[in-house]
User: What shape does this take?
Amino acid sequence: MKALIETIVTPLVDHPEDIVVDVKEEEQKVTYHLSVHSDDVGKVIGKNGRIAKAIRTVVYAAGSDSEKRIYLDIM
Assistant: This one.
């Protein structure tokens, strides 16, 4: 899942070397924390959050077969 998030975000940003995806697993959920360069935050979120919503949709769909709930936080 971490590789999927990096693959989706890399073409969107100007500083792909600053992409960091941290994983926090709990009993009922897995949370992915996505951090990008401060200049690229707007590109990842998009107008009215459309790009962020699309990224979350893909990540949630990819993890739908998992027993744990998946969350994506953009820092």
